[in-house]
């Protein structure tokens, strides 16, 4: 059995294991929850071409899957009267990429998205490293502009797409709200989310109700370790990108050394407590400013801002990692808890991030289908098997979810 067949069969095992885990969690949730508080899962937006996902497999990084750069589409727009030409927004499941996607959705912009697969190491491919030598997502290409910094991307969107009918997420400079929004953007975007993510994977004992299955966490740990070797090989194979690969390898090595230190991780999580306290206090001010129940405010005022984009994605990632109980799930920060319950119901949030925390839907199946599609000319039999079982797994999950739902 060659490596491609082995990896395909490994994906089948992961899909089945993930399905069983999701069904068990779903059954427990339905049985234990108050029926009056149960809600339907958000419907899938037909405009969304592909889910974005969290890396869950390791065997894929051990064999080469070269991809071509994404095709440059045309006519992406906010409407027929405001067309703009752009390459896809290259993104993945990283917090920064999710913030950009949410900002685009909140502004009502249309953008061709290309999912850079972290499990398949597409962010380390030479074509992507030439686009962004740091090898990180997101990246936005608009006309002749290539923008790699997430904050700069969102500021670029604000500056260039502010016509009538397009919501502003950053108040006018000099207004009473501008400094408040900028303060919370900087505060929340400075949080070491990579450290939280790697730390919770390497030390699952510090989490509670994590959305990362045990088998996936083990696979991710192995993949993280393999990445350094992969970068070294790519540096040898691509001399013109050697400096970029070596720099990325050094950054990764330094991060992993810190993130594997449990004492250091606990220190970071303790520091996060003070940030959450500040957010709780700010939200309480909004409650006191607008005591009417029918007119709740957001973080910085009665409008949804870039600060809310940062806070919404931060809370959603903490929920995924199994840290929500510590920071707001036990009633210790009621305003944060209420805020999170409200923000996940926003149409833009449901559309672009509604299924991000579901490993099966957002990770296992997309990886399996992409691998099957790429290798169809090589191993048709295995590809068909992966596709068939993947589809059957997904349909079975939807069927069982419907049966277990109290509304069905």
Automatic annotation (TrEMBL):
Signal peptide: none annotated. One of its GO terms (cellular component) is mitochondrial outer membrane. Residues 262-289 form a coiled coil. Keywords: Acetylation, Coiled coil, Cytoplasm, Isopeptide bond, Membrane, Mitochondrion, Mitochondrion outer membrane, Transmembrane, Transmembrane helix, Ubl conjugation. Residues 84-165 form the GST N-terminal domain. The chain crosses the membrane at residues 352-372, 378-400. GO terms for biological process: mitochondrial fission; mitochondrial fusion; protein targeting to mitochondrion. It is a multi-pass membrane protein. SUPFAM superfamilies: GST C-terminal domain-like, Thioredoxin-like. It comes from the Eukaryota. It holds the Pfam family GST_C_2. Residues 203-367 form the GST C-terminal domain. It is found in: Cytoplasm; Mitochondrion outer membrane. Regulates the mitochondrial network by promoting mitochondrial fission. Belongs to the GST superfamily. PANTHER family: GANGLIOSIDE-INDUCED DIFFERENTIATION-ASSOCIATED PROTEIN 1, GDAP1, ISOFORM A. Homodimer. This is Ganglioside-induced differentiation-associated protein 1. It comes from Cyprinodon variegatus (Sheepshead minnow).
């Amino acid at each position: 059995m060659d490596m491609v067949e082995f990896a395909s069969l490994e994906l089948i095992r992961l899909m089945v294991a993930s399905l069983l885990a999701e069904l068990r969690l779903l059954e427990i949730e339905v049985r234990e929850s108050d029926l009056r508080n149960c809600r339907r899962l958000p419907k899938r937006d037909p405009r969304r071409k592909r889910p974005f996902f969290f890396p869950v497999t390791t065997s894929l990084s051990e064999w080469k899957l070269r991809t071509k750069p994404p095709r440059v589409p045309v006519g992406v727009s906010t409407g027929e009267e405001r067309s703009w030409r752009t390459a896809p927004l290259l993104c993945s499941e990283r917090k920064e990429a999710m913030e950009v996607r949410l900002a685009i959705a909140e502004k009502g912009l249309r953008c061709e998205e290309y999912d850079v697969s972290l499990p398949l190491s597409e962010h380390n491919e030479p074509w992507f490293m030439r686009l962004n030598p740091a090898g990180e997502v997101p990246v936005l290409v608009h006309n002749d502009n290539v923008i790699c910094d997430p904050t700069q991307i969102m500021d670029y969107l604000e500056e260039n797409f502010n016509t009538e009918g397009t919501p502003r997420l950053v108040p006018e400079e000099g207004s009473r709200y501008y400094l408040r929004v900028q303060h919370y953007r900087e505060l929340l975007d400075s949080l070491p989310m990579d450290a939280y993510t790697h730390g919770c994977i390497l030390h699952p004992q510090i989490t509670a109700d994590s959305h990362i299955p045990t088998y996936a966490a083990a696979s991710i740990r192995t993949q993280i370790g393999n990445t350094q070797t992969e970068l070294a090989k790519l540096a040898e194979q691509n001399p013109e990108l050697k400096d970029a690969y070596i720099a990325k390898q050094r950054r990764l090595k330094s991060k992993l050394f810190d993130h594997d230190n449990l004492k250091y991780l606990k220190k970071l999580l303790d520091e996060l407590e003070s940030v959450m306290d500040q957010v709780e206090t700010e939200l309480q001010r909004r409650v006191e400013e607008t005591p009417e129940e029918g007119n709740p405010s957001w973080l910085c005022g009665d409008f949804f801002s870039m600060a809310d984009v940062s806070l919404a994605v931060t809370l959603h990632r903490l929920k995924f990692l199994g840290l929500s109980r510590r920071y707001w799930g036990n009633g210790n920060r009621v305003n944060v808890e209420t805020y999170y319950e409200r923000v996940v119901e926003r149409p833009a949030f449901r559309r672009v991030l509604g299924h991000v925390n579901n490993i099966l839907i957002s990770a296992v199946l997309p990886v399996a289908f992409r691998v099957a599609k790429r290798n169809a000319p090589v191993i048709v039999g295995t590809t068909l098997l992966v596709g068939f079982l993947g589809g059957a797994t997904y349909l079975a999950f939807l069927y069982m979810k419907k049966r277990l739902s109290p509304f069905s």
